[in-house]
Known about the structure:
Elements: H1 2-11, H2 32-51, H3 55-61, E1 65-69, H4 76-95, H5 104-124, H6 128-131, H7 135-142, H8 159-174, H9 181-202, H10 204-210, H11 213-221, E2 227-229, E3 232-235, H12 240-243, H13 250-268, H14 272-277, H15 292-315, H16 323-331, H17 335-362, H18 387-416, H19 423-449
Antiparallel strand pairs: 1-3, 2-3
Helix pairs in contact: 1-15, 2-18, 2-19, 4-5, 4-7, 4-9, 5-9, 5-17, 8-11, 8-13, 8-15, 9-10, 13-15, 13-16, 13-17, 15-16, 15-19, 17-18, 18-19
Amino acid sequence: MTHKWLLALFAFFPSFALAHAGQQGLILLLPTQIYILSGGLAVVLTVVLAAFMKHRFLKTLFTPHPIAPLPAARQIFTSLASTFAFFAMIWLGLFGPHDPLANLMSLGVWTGVWIGLVLLCGIFGNLWAWLNPWSGIFALLAGKDPSPPFQLPESIGHWPAIALLMGFNGFGIASAAATDPQLLAILGCLYWMFTFVMMMLFGAETWLQRGEFLTVFIGLLAKISPFQRGETLNIGCPGWRIAQSPTPSLSLALFALILLGTGTFDGLNETFFWLIQLGINPLDFPGRSAIVPQTLTGLIVVNIGLCVIFYLCVWLTAPAKQTGELFRRQALTILPIALAYHFAHFLPSFLVDGQYALVALSNPLNNGADYFNLGPFFVTTGFFNTTATVRVIFLSQASGIVLGHILAILLSHRVASDFFATRRAVLISQIPLSAFMIGYTILGLWLLATPKGA
Length: 454
């Protein structure tokens, strides 16, 4: 066991735990050390509290309760409406305003879907199942998921979704043209057609659940929601569906970890720290196009590093024959952290771009129309200029990160209780993972306040 604990020391060394958190246009002139210490202590206390919880209490905590029966509902109409809205955005991207802050294609992708819809699904459940722009039109043209001409091999797992997720995030993080409306419209149209063809070839349900990265991404984060809609409306502690999930495939477990790793790098690559490592003066940033290879390499390395470190944390204390299964189960417990970082990172930009999106909805062609009767409307960033409002934003981000880690720790203990018979065994098994999460909390809060240069 000695060699395992030596590896643990390297795994938990702070220089490796590069957490992802916030995004801001100024340096927070607040006593952030106090918040970082307080957040870290809150997570530590959660670890201690969870260590004394009985197996029965942990299982009860993550057991849902049926609220009311629900009528059967068809998603075809909402999906068709979403398809219409999507192609309206495509048209606006091609022929509408060239300014990304006035075009609903850019604002719809990055503000409406990537921030707003993802967060709503994390809170209220899988709304994407009702809103994806393929299911409705597929049902109209092909019927109820007819037998496809080809079978997607089980060995492929969720690797297509992983490849598409990495490609999408690489484009969003590294490309200087990531918000260009025309380019987004072209890529969005091509992706819609690609997905529809793959649904025809391999079956709608199969491709959406294993190959379409947004469906897999949002489906995982929706497991955090306390709500589940089925024959009845069920409600429970946030994350109860993670606690009760069957063991995922290795590729789905890696997909969950990559969500966190990508969020980590998305925050890291904007910092002075990262730019200095690249030999770039943060105050004279040359632009994204000058560091595309370094950015993509960093994205890949951080994701690989996170997966390896997380595996080591499980392997150090797992029963030899159950290491793989426990790793796959525990990988899902970090989903609350991934959602928390998503919220913390994008909150400042959502506060601003959400205003631009409202204006664009009222005036989609940027021709002076005012369908929402907004009148003279000026987008404001004034809340970044006063200590009081910045404090509220920072505390909201920090609270989200701490709560995400607390929930992840409780879920991790709940999953461990399925593999270890006694509280002592659960506690020992959680030492590496708890240290990992505590370190991630502290560095995540630190990154909220660290200066950004990209």
